[in-house]
Design brief:
249 residues, Receptor-associated Protein, elongated
């Protein structure tokens, strides 16, 4: 294995791990962003290193996109709840029954569990069972609050629209707060990503500036052990900082 090939693999893999631990990327952009960041880290060896980083990005880009897919889906589902409940209350005030109102609010939505809820209600499934399945498909606290409100409204009756109005306002405030917290913590996430990538970048630059460093790191068991220990510690640091940043969201 040449020094250029090893450097390309090391940089590309480290950028992927940092991004996977600290953020999520859409599938169409994952490989492109990994390539761009890896090339920016090693601009001095475009011929030898870029094919390697391109291969790493092509192979691991889809994996990186999948890692953040669940969290993104939950955030999108929570963000749709206020508008869905608004539609339910409008249908109720127009004289519709609660199952009919909920079915109308969920019909046409792209989120899979909401579409499944509409299909269950249109097929005559019990209201409580349908709402429970809808909650279990994406068991977030916001959806739990909405499911509890819908279940109580179905059992107790009364002024259902007023109750759902209060829940909708609560969910809308929660979504706005989560967006604000995400915006305020973006600098911390960027700093964490820099701290994860910096040791790898320093090792690559040191190996490029002095061939003896590359020979030690790549030429024997001692260097391999150093690289393995550094990768493990860097990965643990990325996970730790991801936990720290995640607590603020």
């Amino acid at each position: 294995m040449t020094s250029a090939l090893a450097a390309g693999l090391w940089v590309g893999g480290s950028v992927v791990l940092a991004q996977a631990a600290l953020s999520g990327l859409e599938p169409a952009l994952a490989a492109r962003r990994i390539r761009r960041r890896a090339r920016a880290l090693v601009p001095s060896s475009p011929v030898a290193v870029r094919p390697t980083t391109d291969a790493v990005a092509a192979l691991l880009g889809p994996v990186l996109a999948v890692l953040g897919r669940g969290a993104r889906a939950q955030r999108r589902a929570d963000a749709e709840l206020p508008s869905m409940l608004d539609q339910v209350t409008r249908q109720l005030r127009a004289g519709a029954a609660l199952p009919v109102a909920l079915q109308a609010a969920c019909t046409g939505r792209t989120e899979a569990s909401s579409a499944a809820l509409a299909a269950d209600l249109s097929g005559g499934a019990p209201f409580a069972t349908s709402v429970e399945r809808w909650h279990d498909a994406c068991p977030t606290p916001a959806r739990g609050l909405a499911a509890a409100a819908l279940g109580l409204a179905a059992e107790a009756g009364g002024s259902v629209a007023s109750v759902l109005d209060g829940v909708t306002d609560t969910l809308r405030d929660r979504v706005a707060l989560e967006r604000e917290v995400a915006a305020l913590s973006s600098q911390a996430r960027a700093s964490a990503a820099v701290l994860v990538v910096a040791p790898v970048l320093f090792a690559v630059l040191a190996a490029g500036a002095d061939h003896r460093v590359a020979e030690v790191l790549l030429g024997g068991p001692l260097g391999w052990a150093c690289l393995a220990a550094g990768a493990v510690l860097d990965g643990l640091g990325a996970l730790w900082m991801s936990r720290l940043v995640g607590r603020s969201r």
